[in-house]
Amino acid sequence: MAKAYAKKFYNSKEWIKARKSFISSRVSIDGGMCQECKKDLGYIVDHVKEITPSNIDDPNITLNRDNFRYLCLICHNRKTFGEARVTGNDVMFNELGELIVRE
Ligand SMILES: [Zn+2]
User: Fold this and answer.
1) Among 15, 47, 73, 77, whose Cα sits 20 to 30 Å from the Cα of 37?
2) How far is the CA of 27 from the centre of ligand 1 (A)?
3) How many other C-beta atoms can be found within 10 angstroms of the C-beta atom of residue 18?
4) Ligand 1 mean position to 23 CA, how many Å?
5) Band of pLDDT at residue 101, cut at 50, 70 and 90
6) Long-range contacts for 10-13 (Cβ within 8 Å, ≥24 apart)?
7) Which domain holds residue 77?
8) Number of domains in the chain
9) Distance, CA 86 to ligand 1 centroid (Å)?
């Protein structure tokens, strides 16, 4: 579900390498638990300061470990959709205002 401008970045060698080494460092620290809820296993390496079209070429944002957080899917979705309030093509709000995955 990466945004179009970020697609190239998420497929880049640099990101794949940075992501992999960040995950192994998290695994050696606490077994790779979600850094937010610390209950579930991490699933996604999230950028604390989110990637935008204006910082996508700035490795201090995109490839800086200090800007990474290992999150489980639930925490990641809460952060991403909670802040952005955007419904992409894969998700929608139901009548209760809950975010659900489109069937
Ligand atoms: Zn979590």
Assistant:
1) 15
2) 15
3) 18
4) 15
5) confident
6) none
7) 4-101
8) 1
9) 21
